[in-house]
Structures are given as structure tokens and as C-alpha cells.
Design a protein that fits this description.
With 478 residues, the chain is mainly β. It has three helices and 36 strands. It folds into five domains: 110 residues, Sandwich (Immunoglobulin-like); 60 residues, Ribbon (Seminal Fluid Protein  PDC-109 (Domain B)), CATH 2.10.10.20; 41 residues, no CATH class; 103 residues, no CATH class; 109 residues, Jelly Rolls (Sandwich), CATH 2.60.120. Helix content is 8%, strand content 39%.
């Protein structure tokens, strides 16, 4: 019997459990090897009886069919090829009749082994021709190697064909992956690419043990137009933040009632260790008032829930902040940022003020630091912190000073509290009068810690003075 010049391999597309014919000669159903190859190139060797059965075309043995029961998927392709043993079990004697049919099978098996060897050499060792990038409507022969632009990897042609759609030809078994995308990424130590990875870049992971995909800058969306990227709170990635022009705007603090205040919108604060945070809408705050006659401090939490602040991100406490040059602001020991100060009066009410969003805070009613009283020739101290005139953190305070001497012409002088000046700075002069007081408006630096205030004196022991604190300035960094 004759034997065709053929490749002992068929690779039909797999559509699920069913019948799949093959065309090459096969004398025994144990001399077949059946493999399922999925769309990712993963090979599963099937077992006869368990996964498939074989029907041979008799008496020619030219072809037959494989009936599969596994796998149940309907994708990929089958690889049906000869598995003829490289052994000879027929023993021809020197005497007796010659069985020509048996002799023909011996010869056929010899040629089939040669065909199998040729196929193995073509596919694995020789005949590999690199054709560059895969192109449709092109004739390919067994052993051609191509790279596909989207199906990343190196592919070998397993059957002579004219290319159509690469994915279809791959599923039909006309191509086999030699090196896949996963192989390349694994060899390079790189992460696999999946949906949603657009615009990401390869970077070293947090543990510095390998590579990962992540946004070097945030992915642009319609919601972050005009934004700039900053390092996020965890210092592990970048995020978008609102951009602003010019200096960061300070919050507008408004007195609402004896128990509430409001932080106006469009304010920006830079919190050390967190970064910028914003008040974008009015926040109403109700401080916890525990005692009369003390300064009360408004803080933003060290770690707000988000960059846009809510009332839940605001703290109030009697604990005074301290200026931290390294952090560039006024902070408490827990890293909360102080942004404003209130005076709680003797009736446990918030003292009313006016604020225009700048550094100046003006009292609605002036706070009397000294009522009319005799000055005398020596220096008389007036503390403005303890009476709620200005907080000790303030840079300066505004005073209204009225002086008079009903008996003598007098000269008046002042110096910042804590100064050791003997003469001081000239302030005013008066003639003897009981009807009119000279009024001097002063805007003085008063930084002297908890003893902040003003010293005044007159050259006459009969002089009187009345001092009223009218405003104070938020310090730099608040």
C-alpha cells in the first residue's frame, strides 16, 4: 500500500466536545497524541478513553477521527499527531512464506517515522525563517516566525496557509506561540498589562523588590482640568490637586453668634505632612466652651479625610500652638495646624469680631486694657493678653489711647511691654483740662509672649490714661 508525502499532524479549530477528523495514516489508535491548546497557548495533553476515543479508516488506515469528551470549552484548537514508536517488533524469518501485507506495514512505518522526524526538525530545529511582523493576505509556510503587533510574542507557523485574521488563524492552530508576552515580562521582571493600565508607567514598587505599573502623574480626567500633580499623603504615588494663581488665599472667619463661627469658602492651607487642603464652601463651627475668660484655638486636623475640608476636619481647643519654622506654621504637639483664635469672655460667650480675610482682626467693641487712672511719673504696665485684648501669638495690636491732665501741662510716652527704655517714645502733650481728652491711635508691635502689652508714663503725677485694644493681627504662618 502506498504512503502519501504528508505531515503527520492536523490542528483543527476546537469547538467543544465532538468529532475531529485527521488525514494522515495511522495503524493503531495508541499511535496518536492528542493535545488541546487554548487561546493563550497553554497545552493540555489528553488521555485516550478518559478524554477521547479514536476511529480508524479501515482497511486503508488512511486517516480517521478523534471524538473528544473533554475539554468542554469551545475555543482554542486540537493538535492531532502521530506517536509512532521508534522500534521494530516484526521478525521476518529466513524460511517460510513472506507476508506481504505485514511487510508493507513495516515499510510504511519506516516512512512514517521519517515523516515524523522531518516534521520535528522543521518545527524545532531547522527551517525557522524570521519573517518580521505578521501581515495579512500573505503566504506562510511551516517554520516561519513572526511577531504580531497586538498579540505580543514570537509565533511559529504550523501549517501552510494564506493569512487572514491573526486571532482566527491562531485559534485554528495555524500558529503556535514560541515566546509569549507573559514569557517576556516574566524574564524582564515586569508586571503584566491588563485593562485600565493606560497611561501608567513602570516603576519600582514600595518594597524595592521588583517593578509595578502606576501613574507617574495622575490620569487626566474632565474633573481635574487645570490641576497640578503632587505626591500623595502616603508618598506612594501622585494625585491631582486644584491649582491656584498667586498666594494661597486665607480663610474668612466670621462671628455668627455667642456660640458659633464660620470659616468662609475658597481658602487654602498647606498642612505639613499632608499637603494642600481647601475650604471650598462655608463651614459652621460650634466650639466646645468649657470656661470663661480664656483664648480658644481653631485647628485643622493633621490628617484630614480629604483635601476638600469639612467641619469634621476642624478642631477647637484651649491648647495654644507654637510656631514651627521647619513646618512653616503654628502647630500643636499632634501636628494639627492652628488657623484662628477666639476670646471667650467672662460670660462664656465668643467675643464678637470683624475679619475681612486678611491678617487684621478687629473687635466689635473695644477691649479696655486700662480705665481712667493716674499714671504717675513712672512706667505703668498694661497687659493686653490676660484681658482678651490680643492673643500672645499676635504680631501687633491696635490701641486707642486717651490721656488728660486736669491740673498740669503734661507729656506722655510709651514703650512696648518688656522694654527697658528709660524715656520711651513720645506720644502726646496736653494742657490742663477736665473737659477734653487727647486721643492717640497707635498700631504697635507687641510680641512679648504671655506678658504682651504696653507701658505708658507721664511727666506729671496728675495725668490720667484710658487704653482700649481695638484690633490685632494674625501672626505670620497663620
Amino acid at each position: 500500500m502506498s504512503l502519501l508525502d504528508e505531515t503527520p499532524l492536523n490542528t483543527p479549530a476546537y469547538t467543544g466536545a465532538g468529532v475531529y477528523p485527521f488525514s494522515f495514516k495511522c495503524f493503531d489508535d495508541d499511535e496518536l497524541e492528542v493535545t488541546h491548546i487554548d487561546t493563550a497557548g497553554v497545552r493540555t495533553l489528553l488521555t485516550k478513553t478518559t478524554h477521547y476515543s479514536v476511529t480508524l479508516n479501515s482497511p486503508s488506515y488512511q486517516g480517521g477521527s478523534v471524538t473528544t469528551t473533554y475539554p468542554t470549552v469551545t475555543t482554542g484548537h486540537l493538535e492531532i499527531k502521530t506517536k509512532i514508536p521508534f522500534s521494530q517488533s516484526v521478525d521476518l524469518t529466513a524460511t517460510g512464506p513472506l507476508n506481504l501485507t505485514q511487510f508493507q506495514k513495516v515499510e510504511d512505518r519506516f516512512v512514517m517515522r521519517l515523516q515524523l522526524l522531518r516534521m520535528m526538525l522543521e518545527l524545532e530545529y531547522t527551517g525557522r525563517t524570521f519573517q518580521g511582523g505578521w501581515v495579512t493576505a500573505t503566504s506562510y509556510t511551516v517554520g516561519d516566525l513572526v511577531i504580531h503587533p497586538s498579540e505580543i510574542g514570537l509565533y511559529a507557523c504550523k501549517a501552510v496557509h494564506t493569512s487572514g485574521v491573526f486571532a482566527t488563524d491562531l485559534t485554528a492552530g495555524k500558529w503556535e506561540a514560541v515566546i509569549t508576552e507573559t514569557d517576556l515580562l516574566t524574564a524582564a521582571g515586569l508586571p503584566a498589562i491588563s485593562a485600565g493600565d493606560a497611561l501608567k508607567a513602570v516603576r519600582v514598587n514600595a518594597g524595592e523588590t521588583g517593578y509595578e505599573l502606576g501613574h507617574v502623574v495622575p490620569k487626566p480626567t474632565s474633573s481635574n482640568k487645570g490641576s497640578v500633580p503632587i505626591v500623595n499623603v502616603g508618598a506612594s504615588d501622585y494625585e491631582s490637586v486644584y491649582a491656584h494663581s498667586g498666594p494661597a488665599p486665607r480663610g474668612l472667619f466670621t462671628w455668627l453668634s455667642a456660640t458659633q463661627l464660620k470659616i468662609g469658602g475658597l481658602a487654602e492651607y498647606n498642612i505639613y505632612g499632608f499637603g494642600p487642603a481647601w475650604v471650598t464652601s462655608d463651614l459652621t463651627i460650634t466650639p466646645t466652651i468649657s470656661a470663661p475668660s480664656y483664648w480658644h484655638y481653631i485647628y485643622i486636623k493633621a490628617s484630614p479625610a480629604a483635601r476638600v475640608l469639612t467641619a469634621a476636619d476642624i478642631l477647637d481647643t484651649t491648647v495654644a500652638p507654637a510656631y514651627d519654622a521647619a513646618k512653616g506654621g503654628w502647630y500643636d504637639a499632634s501636628g494639627n495646624l492652628c488657623v484662628f483664635m477666639l476670646w471667650i469672655d467672662g460670660s462664656n460667650n465668643i467675643t464678637k469680631w470683624w475679619h475681612a480675610g486678611d491678617r487684621r482682626v478687629a473687635w466689635d467693641d473695644g477691649v479696655v486694657a486700662r480705665a481712667y487712672a493716674a499714671l504717675g511719673a513712672g512706667w505703668v504696665s498694661t497687659a493686653i493678653v490676660s484681658i482678651g485684648g490680643a492673643p500672645k501669638q499676635a504680631e501687633r495690636a491696635g490701641f486707642a489711647i486717651r490721656v488728660q491732665d486736669p491740673t498740669n501741662s503734661a507729656l506722655y510716652y510709651y514703650r512696648p511691654k518688656g522694654s527697658t527704655a528709660t524715656t520711651g517714645c513720645f506720644m502726646a502733650s496736653t494742657v490742663p483740662t477736665t473737659a477734653i481728652s487727647a486721643c492717640i491711635m497707635e498700631d504697635l508691635f507687641i510680641i512679648a509672649g504671655s506678658t504682651s502689652g504696653l507701658d505708658i508714663r507721664s511727666d506729671q503725677s496728675t495725668s490720667l490714661a484710658y487704653i482700649e485694644v481695638q484690633s490685632w493681627d494674625l501672626p505670620e504662618g497663620m
